[in-house]
Amino acid sequence: MPNPFSVFARVLLLSAAANLFLCLSVWSQPPVINAKVVGVVDGDTIVIEDRKRRKYQVRLKNIDAPELAQNFGQQAKGHLSALVMGAWVRIVSNHYDKEGNLVGRVLRKRQDVALEMVIGGLAWHFFGFAHGQSIAERRFYEAAEQNARRSKFNIWSDSNPVAPWVFRRQAGASPSRKALGGEQAIHRSFRQFINDVVHQKGW
User: Fold this and answer.
1) pLDDT 10s digit of each residue in the chain, 203 long?
2) Could you give phi then psi for residue 113, rounded to 5 degrees?
3) 33: closest CA among 85, 107, 90?
4) How far apart are the first and last CA of the chain?
5) Residue 131's beta-bridge partner residues?
6) On the CB side of 147, how many CA atoms lie within 13 Å of its CA?
7) What is the extent of the structural domain holding 152?
8) CA-CA distance, 107 to 91, in Å (whole number)?
9) Within a 10 A sphere around the Cβ of 27, how many other Cβ atoms?
């Protein structure tokens, strides 16, 4: 059994170092949008509302959390809710999915929310998005998942956890994208989203 103190220390150090590096790299860029989280759909999807009360559904980049029907699916949603529900977050996005959802980095203060989900053992580092990560960022996510696996946190306490993309494939859904349900949001294209931000910032 892992030493609880050493596990806790590893998690703290990993979280602090990774979040500092990742957030500094993003905060050095021009802001994209600041919005309040008004809903959590599942362990990797949130609903945000901007200052003009416009809503967007956002998929957290770089991770894939268990589906709600899977083991730890509800726990993942609950943990994400605890991290961001009702909070103001910063969204950095460069694309959207086929359903019109933004796919982006979600930051609360200096916390990379997706990374926190991986550190907590409630999401996989999703390689479908990892191609857009820098080498250093990818290594932080990989280290976070390896530590969660070694420590048997949450999904890794299962001797044979089923990845959500495998679960979706077995259920007959697209393995790369999930059909989002749950809370209703206004789906807007990324082009319209950018136009809104440009207008809002006066660029």
Assistant:
1) 555 545 555 555 555 555 554 554 544 453 488 999 999 999 999 999 999 999 989 999 999 999 999 999 999 999 999 999 999 999 998 777 777 788 899 999 989 999 999 999 999 998 765 557 888 889 999 999 999 999 999 999 999 999 999 999 998 866 555 544 433 334 444 445 545 554 554 44
2) -65, -40
3) 90
4) 56
5) none
6) 24
7) 4-201
8) 7
9) 12
**Residue carrying the six token digits 């909070």:** 87
- Phi then psi dihedrals of residue 55, to 5 deg: -105, 145
The C-alpha angle 133, 138, 142, rounded to 5 degrees, equals 150
Count Cβ atoms below 10 Å from residue 9 Cβ, excluding itself: 11
Q: Taking every pair of C-alpha atoms in the chain, what is the biggest distance, in angstroms?
A: 56
Q: What is the CATH number of the domain that holds 107?
A: 2.40.50.90
DSSP annotation of 92: E
β-strand partners of 96: 102
Q: How many residues does the chain have?
A: 203
Separation between Cα atoms, residue 196 and residue 202, nearest integer Å: 10
Q: Give, in order, the Cα–Cα distances in Å from 201 to each of 8, 120, 187, 192, 197.
A: 42, 35, 21, 14, 6
Domain count, the chain: 1
What the block records as the tokens of 176 is 């790369």
List phi, psi (to 5°) of 61: -75, 150
CB atoms within 10 A of CB 35: 23
